Queue: 3 jobs
Job 1
Amino acid sequence: MSNEELFNIYFNTHTINSISDYATKNLGLCKDEKYLSERYWSEEEDQFLIENYASMDTNEFTDIFNKTTATVIARAIKFGISKDRWWTDEEILILKKYYPYMRNKELYEKYFSYRTYDSVTNKALKLGLIKDPKYLYKTECETLEQNSEKLYRHIKGKDGEIHKEYKLKGKDNPKYKPRIKLNCAYCGKEIYRLESDIASNNNTFCSVSCSARWKSENMSGVNSPIRGKVSEKWTNEMRKQQAINVIDRLLKSDFSYRKTKPQLIIDNLLNQLNIKYKNEYNCKYYLIDNYLIDYNLMIEVQGNFFHCNPVMNLDNNRKAKILGKDKAKHTYIKKYYNIEILYLWEKDIYENIEICKQLILKYINNNGILENYHSYNYCSRNNKLVIIKDKYNIGY
């Protein structure tokens, strides 16, 4: 079923977005392939639309294809077909004759009710038609006169002259509701508010700044209404299940278009070295960029910015969170797979690909045992791999 159908039939107490998020993120669900193929347009439907869109009413297509009007129109736009292209000479003459001197709604209802209102106004726009200036002036005067009667009343002033007074102001407005007098909960200033506003708020303020100051003093720290509730609601079990669901969705998607340039370079290097590998290797809660099949070893390709390369000291305001996740991933792999991951960094992949090549070979020849597992801590001297004296420590 579509998300809209689920909303209308079963879950109208939720939003469509929340239904979609819960189904995909919490339950790991995805749409059935057969349903998706039936939902989209077939070649026969496309051909029928192209051949008949100009001569048939759009509502007829909705009955034939069991699709919404918006879907049919969007499909027609995709193929570049439009009903405007098939306006007859007689229709265009009528439009040119009456458009400058009639309201659009009147013109539509009187001469073009078999079309859509938008198609009529759009056609006039494409033909460059405009309203006659005298006609516009006349209609504006009529509108002003009508509004004047609705909005103003005539009263006799102290000078004996008749004046216009805006009659919808304050208590004279027919929609006016009485206000209740009270004081600002922060500064004590006298204010007036609707009863409904007071009923929905424990405290009422004269301004946004007073509201902010009161909340800062009374609803922060231990007095915060959400203190402790977030951690109680989002349990460790839920976090783990969420991670599994995310991994499952990623594995079902197409990774080919997501590969970064550094990842493609490393994949190509492994192919040149005749090393069998698997991209996005599933470790339950985590995915590994390259799993070396014949050696039971793992390689991660680390972006400079998104993994906070310590050599470059980039300004990433999420640094603490990113390093925490990378460290947790390293700890999990070490504990449950007993593998130390080799980290090849974007800067070295671009600038020192030979170091990356030597590191991979040494990593394999030493059965996964290295003095350091980050490529930025190595340099090449006389074509030999050497670890630098002052090593960078990223924390994992």
Note: The longest strand covers residues 277-282.
Job 2
Amino acid sequence: MGLLDQVKKSWNAFRSNDQSYSKDLYEQGPPSYGTAPPQNQRLRYFNERSIITSIYTRIAIDVADILIRHAKVDEDGNFLDNLTSEFNTCLTLQPNLDQAPRAFRQDIVMTLFDEGIATIVPVDTISDPQFNAQFDILSMRVGKITQWYPKHVRVSVYNEAKGVREEITLEKQMVAIVENPFYAVMNEPNSTLQRLTRKLQLLDTVDEASSSGKLDLIIQLPYVIKSEARQKQAEQRREQIEFQLKGSQYGIAYTDGTEKITQLNRPAENNLLKQIEYLTNKLYGELGITEEVMNGTANEAAMLLYYNRTIEPILDAIVEAMQRAFLGLIGTKKKQKVLYFREPFKFVPLGQLADIVDTMSRNEILSPNEIRSAMGYRPSKDPKSDELINSNMPPPAPPPQVPPNPQGESENQVETATNDELEAIK
């Protein structure tokens, strides 16, 4: 392409942003102002202000790190291949106009933890889900249920056409309803997490009261305050001390030698902090996480326990809800399944990776190109790299060739003659 053609076909975002285009944008819907996208789920007020948010975010990031696919399986449910469906495109490329697959998975988990139940709503489909048992999904959103009916649910979901959240009524069979497997620990009114939230609210109240700037002084005057005149005199004395403290650069006031001042803003001793530490450790144990998992210093055994006890139950709940609602009995009979895949070599140290690769290759479990792909290398062009062979063993010897029979005798005759010769030798 020449220089003149490049200039003609070039496009600049600022030069091409004319007023008519901006006018069309306002006709599509009202703009949303703020730093957060309007489609994001906002956490509850007290969850957002406490350490609960860090627990939610840590688990949600780890769940979103695992890929979810629409796959083809065999008779035993083993993975065969990825399906080229629009539903798989939503899971791997673009669930909707605003979110990438990782952000979509994290949105599911954050809504699941905050509400206890999350819904995955198929917004755009190829066929009508109300009349077709199997339908392909073009886009989907995460919503939260506001009302329950016998066969329907009222869902609050973001409408990208209008730019606002709306409530719509949908059938339960066409919506993936994901229930939190840790509902009894996180969302019940008297669960460990809710008790911890209330204790943190009390701690915030105590901190705000202690840091409000009040001195909480009691002034003991050298006379009895019973009459109205003495009360007015005491009130005047209090105002004088307030004026001295407020007008002084360093907050210093003077009193008479007969007056006595007692300060009351000493922190009251309580076991609130110990209760918070106890509930935090109990919550970590019930969720299957540790302090090392939260700060990123956990060893391999702790991470394995964390993934088995915490991450996999959440992923199972998500994929089972998708399997029930989006594939149904027809898709299951066609050997279609929603699967999640965890990177096997992600947390393996480099010193152990060589031994694992050698074991996998020697036992003919993975081919060299499959191992190279998992490690991030390009596949090799050698035909042997796609074969399940043990490179440490010599190739098998070719089968022995039977020499041709020059006399044209049959095999039975040759075999009989050979046997006669052996009998003669004996």
Note: The chain has three domains: 43-200+289-342, 201-275, 348-393.
Job 3
Amino acid sequence: MTATIESEVRSYCRNWPVVFTQARGSRMFDRDGRAYLDFFAGASVLNYGHNHPVLKQALLAYLEQDRVTHSLDMFTAAKQEFLTEFAARVLVPRGLDYRVQFPGPTGTNSVEAALKLARKVTGRQTIVAFTGAFHGMSLGSLAATGNAAKRAGAGVPLGHTWRIPYDGFAGNQVSGLKLLDIMLADNSSGVDLPAAVLVETVQGEGGVNPASPTWLADLAELCERRGILLIVDDIQMGCGRTGPFFSFEVAGISPDIVCLSKSISGYGLPMSLTLFRPELDVWRPGEHNGTFRGNNPAFVTATAALREFWSDSTLEKQTEVRARRFEHELDELAERHAAQITASRGRGLVWGVAFREPRMARQVADAAFARGLLLETSGSYDEVAKLMPPLTSTDEELAEGLSILQDSVASVVLG
């Protein structure tokens, strides 16, 4: 690669040292014309693939008419159309009564707004977070993140957070929910009533750890009984990644606050939402804001995505069928290489293959890249090979990706 003035903080380009120039559907192309099947999908930003033609045409038509591109939180036709479609196609069918806040362009903006609102509403400071959590890289969301390396980059103490075991942590030897409930019941525990519990239904960066629907329902019940707000971080797992539009639907719960970003624009354009029950809308005008919360091109593609993919349950049902295929094939892969693979796990179209030796996950990802497949690693020690193909991938593309993964694992295992 040529010399760069880009900071040493760059990461993904180190693992995929080519210059990408084009992308369509489930594939990216480098400047030499080589195609790569994308099982990364922009860390779940591109649930509908690269440059989906329906979304692209909506965006181009909007721009060609010299429509508003930046508007802070002013009224625009693009924002109004998005809000109308979001209510009609997402909220109303699910019986969810949420206010919609545009907190800024990225996921961590949504989390920061959620934490700030929870503290303002309750007058309390502590946030309960979980082992293995990842919520963003700004200070509030980083305080709730579990990864030691990411936390070390803060440079200041990260406080006002109490961490408990996630579902399945340490082989389920310790129940985080039981611990939380017992500590809150004991006046001598030293644990103050928290403002909120912040949770991912499937931990993506933490190693593709799905919480069971029962565990999530028990968490929601505990929060309601104790008067604690429940915040679901659906940034990576929302917008259909696990099947339903919201990943928490499988548990039959209605969180007090929901964080959305990544695929909400549908096209890779920066956009995030913080959703909350109407009675929690205690913000004063301008009390929480941001310059780029009025990204109208993102509103346009988000509206097009809602109309294209969420008018019925077709995409959700397709993802659920494909989930069973991934589960079957990855379970077979894990059984075939039981000496090296400890588990395969996931939900919808997010799956992880965990290795006994952490370095093997990176070796498998590198071997896959050499064969034309993009996938990344995650987990406490990057011990998990993580698969997140676009939801719009064809059956043939999914089969191709799984075949490359199997060949890559075999090449690493056999040396």
Note: The first strand starts at residue 20 and ends at 24.
